[in-house]
Design goal:
The complex is a heterodimer of chains A (271) and B (430).
Chain A: H1 2-30, H2 34-38, H3 50-60, H4 63-94, H5 100-109, H6 115-128, H7 136-139, H8 146-156, H9 161-169, H10 174-203, H11 206-211, H12 220-225, H13 235-270
Chain B: H1 2-25, E1 46-53, H2 59-68, E2 72-79, H3 83-95, E3 102-105, H4 109-112, H5 136-141, E4 153-154, E5 156-157, E6 160-165, H6 166-172, H7 178-184, H8 188-202, H9 209-218, H10 236-250, H11 260-268, E7 274-278, H12 281-288, E8 296-299, E9 312-315, H13 322-332, H14 335-345, E10 348-349, E11 363-364, E12 370-371, H15 372-381, H16 392-408, H17 413-429
Parallel strand pairs in B: 1-2, 1-3
Antiparallel strand pairs in B: 3-9, 4-9, 5-10, 6-7, 6-8, 11-12
Helix pairs in contact in B: 6-8, 9-10, 9-16, 16-17
Classes of the chains: A mainly alpha (271), B alpha+beta (430).
Chain lengths: 271, 430
Amino acid sequence: MTGKKIFVHTFLLIGVIFSIFPFYWLVVMSTNETSAIFSFPPRLTFGSYFLTNYNNVMENINFYRALLNTVMIAVVSTTLQLFFNSLTGFTFSKFKFPGSKALFYIMMATMMIPGQMLLVPQFIIIKELDWLGSYKALIIPGMATAFGIFWIRQYALAIHDELLEAATIDGSSKFGLYWRVALPILRPALAFLGITTFMGVWEDYLWPLIVLTDTSKFTLMLTLQQLKSVHTGDYAMVMTGTLLATLPLILFFLVVSRQFIAGIMDGAVKS
Amino acid sequence: MKLKNMSSILLALCLALVVSACGQNDPAPSSNPSSPANESGSNDKITLKMWYWNGAISDSTIEAAKTKFPNIDLQAEKLPSGGDFLTKLTTTLSGGGGGPDIVTMDSWISTMLTYNDKFVNMYDYGARDIQSQYLDWKWKIGATEDDSYLIGLPIDVAPVVLYYRADLFKEAGVASTPEEIKAQVKTIDDYLALLKQVKEKTGSQSGTLVDLFRSIMGQSSENYFDLEGNYIGDKEHVKAAWDASVKAYQEGVTFPYTSDSEKNAAMNNGKISSFTGASWAVGDVISGAPDTSGKWNIAYPPGGVGNQGGSAMGILKSTKYPKEAFEVVKFLVSPENLLAGYKEFGNYPSTPEIYDKPEMVNESEFFGGQNLSSVFGEAAKDVQNAHKDSRDELVINALSAALGSVDAQKKDPEQTWIEAQKQIKRQLER
């Protein structure tokens, strides 16, 4: 038994080291000079240049403005997606209406189209709507996604019809069924969707690059790219910027994931 | 219960935010449709939007332009560089709107000539008057084949020169001063003979065989397609470059690094004693090989001069003020302002008249106090300009991958050449 435990733990430890190392090195690089990054063998200990690098980042880009922009977009997008995806997913799973099956499959088919192909058509739509350069172009096209709806629908299939019938008899409206009965049950599914959506919006690069025109509205990922120049670069500064841009995401994940794990337990006990 | 209340409040807040964000931003994209380009009265400022990237043009130059043109509100947007910039530009062009007035273009400007109807013809606004200030080969990159349409004014050039370790070359007993190298190492064969001796005496090598191949092709007056668009990548000039690279590899004078950090490490510990690199590689060597400071030199390259990079600046047709935009561009790329760019980022100017100015002198401690500018200036005037095609990249990538496999997977070079050509032709037929 103990032998097996040691084996499992060594295995896990190796996995942890492998996945933590890139992040560790990011921190190391952000505390060193650029020349130290390229020295051989590479330096693996912390340096004392973090403040210098930090000041360089702040001098070159408007970091906090970009952070605020990104947090705003990520929170709004995630909330809207959770709402619309869960509403639609729940409807597809529990209500039969003419053409519901066909509609669902058509929606699923949109997942087959590669995103790059949609770039120009979507750009033209946004341009015709005169939304270029505004956050609407980022938020509204992503308000509901085929994957999100599919994900919620699969989860919602497990909700017992008796539960919904009982609520209806008690006088609940259709929306009430969703809001009061389904949503609490769907919490674990929403947790996963929330985390991936938030991360996706945080890291999204191509679409914001194309539709945003005003540098002051840029998201973090776009702003970070401004740190890079074409040929030579202060990599220590770029790494510091990257670290600063990643920290809020990690923080969000740590705080939220605990909530959501609690949510999963809730569901388990109730059902 | 509490959580549910919270979530409904959050949802309402988000919807409100979106709606309010919509209202706020509406006027931005359609900035001033009500004030057409009437004779710009001295009071009303016109707005010119410009796209550039970090390191394309000096921020101090942009500030100078704002002072020089008080009637123009120059909104310079610093965008991500490289392929991202190109993606944004091509999407905007094919989407048909929302672009800037002034746009910076990298060496991919030649691919933009296909869309020259989207750009203002700068010859219509007096570009001919300043043409003589710029390197002729660089100027032509932004012009159509018949030289009737110009889509961009030159900013900088990036002549490829030979970077080498003067101390190791001396130790090996080969030509080791820039003058000696220029006089004695004239052809690629001379260079290979030199590399062989350096390898025997010091154990140090040159860049990869793919680097060498690209560098030789850069010196060629023909690329992979002729003027009619026929594929010539299987012809003698390409095969000769291929064979020379293979020969260098077989003689053991190439160093097979696979990443920049590996290359830096090899430079830093003296395993790489020479490579051909563009003028912007100066910064790479300095930051990549700090322990070798003072030991490097640069020299006029053996085999001829290629060019790797360098940008230009053009005006989109969608602008309302082409005349004013042209004046701004003309100012931004004027010889004095290009000098500022050289001082700031090492972008070598495309205006030969300033090469001999005392301000251009760039004596680097890292290069043993050598004046780098004079070598770049001499090389810049001799750059070979080959006809470029939008499919060049496909061919270069395929040939590079094949050549790399000769080293990495020890493939037979002749067989690999034949397979690579087959693969390229198949891809071109699509």
